[in-house]
Amino acid sequence: MASIRETIRQTHQTLDQSGIPDARLEAEVMVMTVMRMTRQNIFSEQESEVAAHQAQELAGVVAQRLERVPLAYILGYREFYGINVAVTPDVLIPRPETEGIVEHTLFMALMGMETRELTIADVGTGSGAIAVNLAIHLPAARIYAVDISEPALDVAAYNIRAHAVADRVRLGHGDLLEPLPEPVDVIVANLPYIPTARIPTLQPEVRQEPPTALDGGPDGLDLVRRLLAQAPAKLNAPGIILLELDPEQFPAAEATARQHFPNAEITAEQDLTRRDRIMVVNRGPGFDE
Ligand SMILES: C[S@@+](CC[C@H](N)C(=O)[O-])C[C@H]1O[C@@H](n2cnc3c(N)ncnc32)[C@H](O)[C@@H]1O
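A: This is the predicted complex of the input protein with S-adenosylmethionine.
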């Protein structure tokens, strides 16, 4: 039997030799998981032995990872904006850059867009990562979480229940804004925005995520364009849209937004690498568009 330290070292080496990115970090997370220990404990107890059944469980995790199954799918969850979100291969694994949507929406809501109860639509909710976080941090808001994929909505439903926000998050099945029963104050969306031709060039892990969560059509903007076309009838005034995009897509997306919201203020928020990541369309009160 090997110690925790030696097991992490060997796991790191195996992953690294197979070209798995962030191999050391993943090795630590795998060992933490099979040992049912916190990060702090695997270091403070690094000379403890890994039991045979734990080593066997670890071997199973490593084998799947060498098949390039994303670690979040193997573990069944991903941390997002401070909470654990359950994920399955039916949903996109929430990405760190998407935390920006939550952060900016909270900032705008808490800046007091209105004192009344806000209504928010999270379009293309997937795991429900954005909707659940908004519900946790905005206890007076009512949230619609919409997706075209029924299996994704099952995962979202699980996360909504697990985080005890089911009383304020309503699920909707259908195309973009169509399932909304009323216009809302805020529309947030991380829609598929990868151009179709780029999909085969993505890392093998990403290609295991659902195609309906990735493929945005020839220039990646098919869904964004359709959402912006539907939005004038589904967004209150004042109202705000926040859309996650690829930095290169901003000029085209802004031109489309301008077409549908000629009087809106349109700005870009940057991600941690200081690249434009979120397009914010701010429709003021009483604009006649
Ligand atoms: C990039 S994923 C985002 C998932 C989640 N919001 C997140 O940020 O982790 C895009 C989601 O949009 C959904 N979707 C794709 N086409 C759609 C459509 N026409 N109407 C509603 N949702 C759609 C996909 O099923 C997928 O769950």
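Residues 4-67 form one domain. Residues 91-92, 94, 98, 123-127, 129-130, 146-149, 152, 175-176, 190-192, 212-213, 223 surround S-adenosylmethionine (CB under 6 Å).
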